[in-house]
Amino acid sequence: MNKNKFDDLLAASKLNELLHKKEVEEKNKNTVLWVLAIIGAVAAVAAIAYAVYRYFTPDYLEDFEDDFDDDFDDDFFDDEDEEEK
Q: Where are the domains of the chain?
């Protein structure tokens, strides 16, 4: 009879250990999930902020390239005309 109680006690302690182990694993999974959710939220906010910045910032380079092309073409053709004369 004592052997039977001991076996029951041993089985109960193993079951308790397994349950405790599952609780720890679930807690770790929740922590990882929260960390990934926070990183995702920060990345989404950063992407939105960058998109808004790009939308509202004028493109000065486009104007510069147009002016540069106009100036370069005029000078190039003027030089050719002078060489032909």
A: 2-84
pLDDT tens for the chain, 85 residues long, are: 577 877 777 788 877 787 777 788 888 888 999 999 999 999 999 999 999 999 998 777 666 666 665 555 555 555 555 555 5
Q: What is the pTM of this model?
A: 0.48
Query: What DSSP assignment string belongs to the chain?
Result: -HHHHHHHHHHHHHHHHHHHHHHHHHHHHHHHHHHHHHHHHHHHHHHHHHHHHHHHS--HHHHHHHHHHHHHHHHHHHHHHHHH-
Residue 67 region, left (φ>0) first, then alpha (ψ -120 to 50), else beta?
alpha
